[in-house]
């Protein structure tokens, strides 16, 4: 058997397996209707309030609607956590940036800024519940 044929037979299963993960929805996993925020869990009032408070404590310094220019420290002008309409409109982006934290050194939060997993989950619950209303 030629070497080329042997290589093709050896690598074909790997290629097919890799291609199976490309595109389309396999129907599993996310049960939130496709929302990157997930579902608003029942009885989540206390956790949502903690998430709201975390946004106010951690994010307002750079994401305040009255902040401009250098005082925003590079925060996008359209994401203001003191404006409910902005929070609702940008909820998925807010959660994404919070999850990334300051690890990327450019976009997102300042370098080294990282919230605890519990705080991130509380913010997720607040965003999921608030954005659903």
Which SSEs are present, and which pair or pack?
Elements: H1 3-20, H2 45-59, H3 84-89, H4 91-100, H5 117-131
Helix pairs in contact: 2-5, 4-5
What report would you give on this structure?
The chain is an all-alpha fold and about 130 residues long. It is about 50% helix and about 0% strand. It is built from five helices and no strands. Mean pLDDT is about 70; it is low at about 5-30.
Features:
mainly alpha; single chain; disordered N terminus; 133 residues
Care to give the gist of this entry?
This protein is mainly alpha-helical. Helix content is 48%, strand content 0%.
How far the N terminus sits from the C terminus, by CA atoms, comes to: 65 Å
The residue ranges in which pLDDT falls below 50 over 5 or more consecutive positions are 3-32
Overall pLDDT: 72
Question: What's the total helix number?
Answer: 5
Supply Rg.
Answer: 21 Å
Helix content estimate = 40-55%
- How many beta-strand elements? 0
Taken from the alpha-carbon principal axes, the silhouette is globular
| Oligomeric description of these chains | single chain
Q: How large is the share of residues in beta strands? A: under 5%
Helix and strand sequence: HHHHH
Category from helices, strands and their pairing = mainly alpha
The biggest beta sheet is recorded as: none
């Amino acid at each position: 058997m030629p070497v080329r044929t042997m290589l093709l037979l050896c690598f074909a299963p790997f290629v097919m397996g890799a291609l199976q993960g490309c595109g389309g929805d396999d129907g599993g996993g996310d049960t939130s209707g496709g929302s990157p925020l997930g579902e608003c869990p029942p009885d989540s009032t206390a956790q949502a309030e903690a998430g709201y408070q975390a946004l106010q404590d951690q994010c307002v310094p750079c994401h305040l609607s009255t902040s401009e220019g250098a005082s925003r420290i590079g925060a996008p002008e359209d994401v203001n956590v003191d404006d409910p309409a902005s929070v609702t409109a940008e909820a998925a982006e807010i959660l994404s940036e919070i999850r990334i934290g300051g690890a990327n050194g450019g976009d997102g939060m300042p370098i080294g800024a990282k919230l605890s997993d519990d705080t991130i989950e509380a913010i997720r619950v607040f965003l999921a519940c608030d954005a659903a209303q």
